[in-house]
Input
Amino acid sequence: MANILIADDSTILRRGLALILTKGGHTVVGQATNGKQACLLFEQLKPDLVTMDITMPVMDGVEALSSILKSHPAAKIIMISALDQKKMVLEALENGAKHYLVKPYKDEKVLATINAVLNN
Output
């Protein structure tokens, strides 16, 4: 299906998301623990899609989104946020994010969102 990069500072959430994606037929090509690392891995791996946590150390997800889209405007990035981060989600969508997921999320919602973004 698709090659996906996961960017999240939580090891538990990265592992859980990787499991959902793998079971859904996707390949997790890399995992980043902060926004800066996500940008570097994006350049190296050129994934089909990125799941990007909003709140991460070193560089947050919105900054990483902007950085990636500056050099790769067609990149497909889905933001992941907590319930209380609505302002940052709106900022991310205004800056080019293709969609968003709110934690905690259900496996079916993750796969439906990713498949919808990949097919657009």
